[in-house]
Task: inverse folding
C-alpha cells in the first residue's frame, strides 16, 4: 500500500480516487436527504421545535462520545477499515427501524442507536483520504466535491418528490440510501499506516495550544450553523417557500462549496489555512445577519452562496490543519476529535440553543444570535493568531 502514499503518482491512483469519491458520494448523498428534510419530516408529524432540538442534540452528543471511541479503537488495533465497515452496516440496520417509529420517543431511540455507529464515518473517510493522497493534501477538494454533487442531486430529487408524495418518502429514501452506503464501504482499502504496528498513539498533541484553539473554532463554527442545519427548512416553509424552493436553497449551498473544492489547490497555495479559518467567521457573520434581515425566499436562496466559505473553505482548512498537526499514529483519532468538536459538540450545543430559541423568539432572531457569535469568534481567533504566531 505504500504506493498509495506518494501523492497518487502511481498506477493505482485513479482507482483509489474513484473508491474515495464513492465513499463521499454515498455519505453526502444520504446527508442530502437527512440534513434538509429529516427535521422537516419531524415538524410535519407534529414534533415541537424543542423535541426536534433534543433529537439533533442527542445525535451530536453521540458523535462526540462514539466518534472518539471508534477512532481510539481503530488506532489501537490498527484496523480502521474493519471498524468503518462494521459501523456502516450497523448504522444502516438501525435506520430500518425509522420505518416504524413515528413518535418523539420512538424516533429518539432509533436516532440514538444509529448515531452510535454513524459517529465515526465522516472522520474515518477524512482519515482514509488524507492517508491515501499522501503529500498532495490540496487534492482533497477534487475528491470531496463528488459528495457535494450527490448532495445537490438528492436535495433536488427529494424536493421534487415532496410535491407528489407524503413526507414519509424522506424516511424510505434515507433507509435505502444507508443500505447502499454500507455496501459501498466494502470497497475501501487499507493504508500502509494501518498496517504499521510500531507506533503508539500519542495524546500529547491535543494539549498543544494551536490544536486547542483550532478545536474551539471548529466547535464555534458548527454552533453558529445550528439554526441553519436544524431549522432553515422550517424557516423557509414559514416564509412561504415550496418544497422545490427549499431544495434550491440547499442545492445552491452545495454548488457554492463545490466551487471552493474545485479551486482548493489554488486557494490554499495562496492563503494560509489560518487566514481561511479567520475569514470564514467574518463571512459567517454577514451570512447570518442577512438571513435575519431578509423576508424574501429568493434572497434567502441567494444568500446560500456564502456557504462556499463558511462550510466549504472552513471545512477543507480544518481537515488539512488537523492532518498537519497529527503524527501518523494519531491520524484517525485526530480527525475523530475534529468531528467530535465540530459536528458533535458544536452541533449538539447549536441544536439545544436553537431548539430553545425557535420556541422563544423564532428563527429570525436565532440567525441574529448566530451572526453576533460569528463576528465575536472571528475577532478572538484573529487575536489568537496575531498573539501566538504559531496558529
Result:
Amino acid at each position: 500500500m505504500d504506493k498509495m502514499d506518494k501523492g497518487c503518482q502511481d498506477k493505482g491512483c485513479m482507482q483509489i480516487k474513484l473508491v474515495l469519491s464513492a465513499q463521499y458520494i454515498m455519505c453526502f448523498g444520504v446527508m442530502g436527504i437527512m440534513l434538509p428534510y429529516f427535521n422537516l419530516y419531524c415538524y410535519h408529524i407534529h414534533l415541537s421545535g424543542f423535541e426536534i432540538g433534543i433529537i439533533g442534540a442527542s445525535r451530536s452528543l453521540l458523535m462526540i462520545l462514539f466518534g472518539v471511541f471508534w477512532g481510539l479503537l481503530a488506532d489501537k488495533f490498527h484496523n480502521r477499515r474493519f471498524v468503518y465497515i462494521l459501523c456502516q452496516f450497523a448504522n444502516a440496520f438501525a435506520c430500518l427501524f425509522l420505518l416504524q417509529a413515528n413518535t418523539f420517543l420512538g424516533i429518539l431511540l432509533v436516532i440514538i442507536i444509529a448515531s452510535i455507529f454513524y459517529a465515526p464515518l465522516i472522520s474515518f473517510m477524512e482519515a482514509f483520504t488524507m492517508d491515501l493522497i499522501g503529500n498532495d493534501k490540496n487534492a482533497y477538494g477534487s475528491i470531496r466535491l463528488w459528495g457535494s454533487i450527490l448532495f445537490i442531486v438528492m436535495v433536488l430529487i427529494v424536493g421534487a418528490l415532496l410535491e407528489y408524495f407524503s413526507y414519509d418518502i424522506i424516511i424510505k429514501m434515507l433507509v435505502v440510501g444507508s443500505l447502499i452506503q454500507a455496501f459501498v464501504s466494502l470497497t475501501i482499502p487499507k493504508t500502509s499506516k494501518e498496517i504499521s504496528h510500531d507506533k503508539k498513539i500519542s495524546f500529547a498533541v491535543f494539549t498543544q495550544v494551536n490544536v486547542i484553539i483550532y478545536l474551539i473554532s471548529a466547535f464555534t463554527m458548527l454552533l453558529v450553523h445550528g439554526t441553519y442545519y436544524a431549522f432553515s427548512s422550517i424557516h423557509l416553509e414559514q416564509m412561504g417557500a415550496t418544497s422545490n424552493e427549499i431544495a434550491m436553497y440547499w442545492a445552491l449551498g452545495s454548488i457554492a462549496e463545490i466551487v471552493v473544492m474545485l479551486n482548493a489547490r489554488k486557494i490554499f497555495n495562496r492563503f494560509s489555512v489560518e487566514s481561511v479559518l479567520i475569514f470564514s467567521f467574518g463571512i459567517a457573520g454577514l451570512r447570518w445577519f442577512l438571513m435575519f434581515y431578509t423576508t424574501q425566499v429568493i434572497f434567502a436562496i441567494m444568500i446560500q452562496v456564502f456557504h462556499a466559505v463558511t462550510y466549504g473553505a472552513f471545512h477543507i482548512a480544518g481537515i488539512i490543519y488537523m492532518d498537519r498537526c497529527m503524527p501518523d499514529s494519531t491520524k484517525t483519532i485526530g480527525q475523530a476529535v475534529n468531528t467530535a468538536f465540530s459536528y458533535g459538540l458544536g452541533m449538539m450545543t447549536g441544536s439545544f440553543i436553537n431548539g430553545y430559541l425557535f420556541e422563544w423568539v423564532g428563527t429570525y432572531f436565532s440567525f441574529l444570535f448566530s451572526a453576533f457569535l460569528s463576528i465575536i469568534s472571528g475577532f478572538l481567533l484573529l487575536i489568537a493568531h496575531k498573539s501566538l504566531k504559531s496558529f
